[in-house]
Known about the structure:
The protein is mostly beta strands. The protein has one helix spanning 33-39, and strands at residues 6-10, 17-21, 26-30, 44-50, 54-57, 61-63, 66-68, 78-79, 83-87, 103-105, 121-122. It has one domain: Metal Binding Protein, Guanine Nucleotide Exchange Factor, Chain A (Beta Complex). Belongs to the Gfa family.
Amino acid sequence: xxxxxxxxxxxxxxxxxxxxxxEPLRVGLCHCKDCRKTSGSAYQAFAVWPSxxxxxxxxxxxxxxxxxxxxxxxxxxxxGEEEVEVMIGGLDVxxxxxxxxxxxxxxxxxxxxxxxxxxxxxxxxxxxxxxxxADDGEPEAGRGPHRKSA
Length: 150
C-alpha cells in the first residue's frame, strides 16, 4: 500500500470530518472495560497514526480523554501529542483494506465466544514496547492516547 493513501471518516451526523494520511503505526483490538463501554461492543478495533498525519474539522467534546460529537454522540479519534487513535468503525469506507490488527489488549476480558486473532500478539493489559533496545517490559507511556482501564 502506498504511503500517500488517505482515509477519511466522520461522525454519524457528518458534523465532524477527519482524515489520516499514510500507513498506521499499528492496528489493534482492545477488550478493556473502557473500550467496551465507549463502543457499546465486546471490543474496539483501532489504528494509530502519527499526529501529523491527522486532520479534522468540526466541533468535538471529550470525556475521560475520549472525543465525541456533541450532536450525535459518535466516538471520534483520540488525539495525543505524538499519536492519534482512530476507531476503525469511524472510517467511511468498509471493509478497510490494510488495517489488520497485529495485537490484542486486555485479553482476559475477551468474551469466551471470541477467538484470538491468528498471528496477533496478545497482551494481558496495555501494550508494552516491542522487543528493542528500549524495551524494559513496562507499558508504553507518554506516546499519545492512554487507556485508563480497570
